[in-house]
């Protein structure tokens, strides 16, 4: 069976392509230096002074949400699930349009003029809930981001054909260093400027690569191979054996809502807009890109599957016979496929586009989690002791600290499921409780501090949807490997996620009714 090194060695990537990538990286660093002169306050640093309008908002929202990790986990889902995976992207687009039409949650948050979601917790439920919510958000968000760096670096290694055993580590360190530099320098202003450039580069790269995939494999041939190898399960997400099912589709529907109305990096764009009307337009028009950001990489993953199944050596490497060795991680399939079919120059442009996607996600996420730790943990605890300049400095320190932490997670955490499923569960540590707090706080007057604490605590239980956590806990309790596997099949990530959502909502309702706030502000606007 061929090794990973042998599989990735045959690539069309040349020095010409490296030159294209280098030019783009220099441009990104220059933007960070340029943006630094416009940062004067914490509001400038976190929400760019709330001056973003519709067109720029759509570009920067797309640039952030269409990250390289999105391309990688979506391609992996397409590789394993076929066209049935498209339901995730379709649901995401429909719900983004719903948020745009109704303004559910996001317009009310913009009206509050908060810098972060936990800041709203503080206004609605008190400082203690703000700090608790900020810690939960940062914990879930950083854990969620833990695989971004590794997945993005795997793409670079796979498409460029790097041969060194240390290549993955070197790429991870270099890319993280670049992102840390311009995020620390320019904050949200830097993020918005780079996201706009990345949106243009990325859009061109996606279209061109998709056309070449179809040209190389043939439109009808792609379907013929998928049907022959997978059958009905490749097209029906609720068919037995599809790897999805009704529970999974329902979980994806909730995640589609979360991605727009609750996920902090998307909400940060709403908070940066110049008006509530702009917020609605931003999400309404971005609904198409919310769908495309998944569907196009799913298709690349499907094309990679077709390519692999027709190459005996690669098929054996990715799908070895029992006892024949360890399979190559399916995250490598898509970049290896593109590295072999794209011509010189085009492959450099696409790699630059993917690095753009990598950086546009990392800068936004680093800024988001660091600003939460500053604005919603440090400031409530320190009060007047933290000046505005001190808050900006502390946020920059957190950016670097979080960057080093995700580097550590990338090295030590054993990814035992598809990357997308890992991200859904780790994100649920935050958003299951956040949904209860925001929906109840904005639309239900009796929502109380006691209910908020119950909902946040319940949301944290989502971590038990991770196979590695299940294995660790059950192993300590003395369960066998077979028993742990059976437990994981019964309590899958989507079932744990849905149960946690129900538990958080129940905690909010019951906790609010049993522990009402003593000094309720009767003039508070809800409903």
Would you mind describing this structure in some detail?
- This protein has 527 residues and is mostly helical.
- It is 76% helix and 0% strand.
- The protein contains 24 helices and no strands.
- The C terminus is likely disordered.
Shape: globular
Query: Beta fraction of the residues?
Result: under 5%
- Average per-residue pLDDT, rounded, comes to 83
How far apart lie the N and C ends? 62 Å
Computed CA radius of gyration, to the nearest angstrom: 23 Å
Sequence of secondary-structure elements: HHHHHHHHHHHHHHHHHHHHHHHH
Structural class: mainly alpha
**Unreliable spans:** 38-52, 521-525
Note the topology.
Blueprint: H1 4-9, H2 15-35, H3 42-47, H4 54-65, H5 68-81, H6 86-102, H7 106-112, H8 117-125, H9 127-144, H10 148-160, H11 167-217, H12 219-230, H13 246-261, H14 264-272, H15 276-309, H16 312-318, H17 333-341, H18 346-382, H19 388-412, H20 419-443, H21 449-459, H22 467-476, H23 481-490, H24 493-514
Which key phrases capture this entry?
24 helices, 527 residues, globular, 76% helix, disordered C terminus, mainly alpha
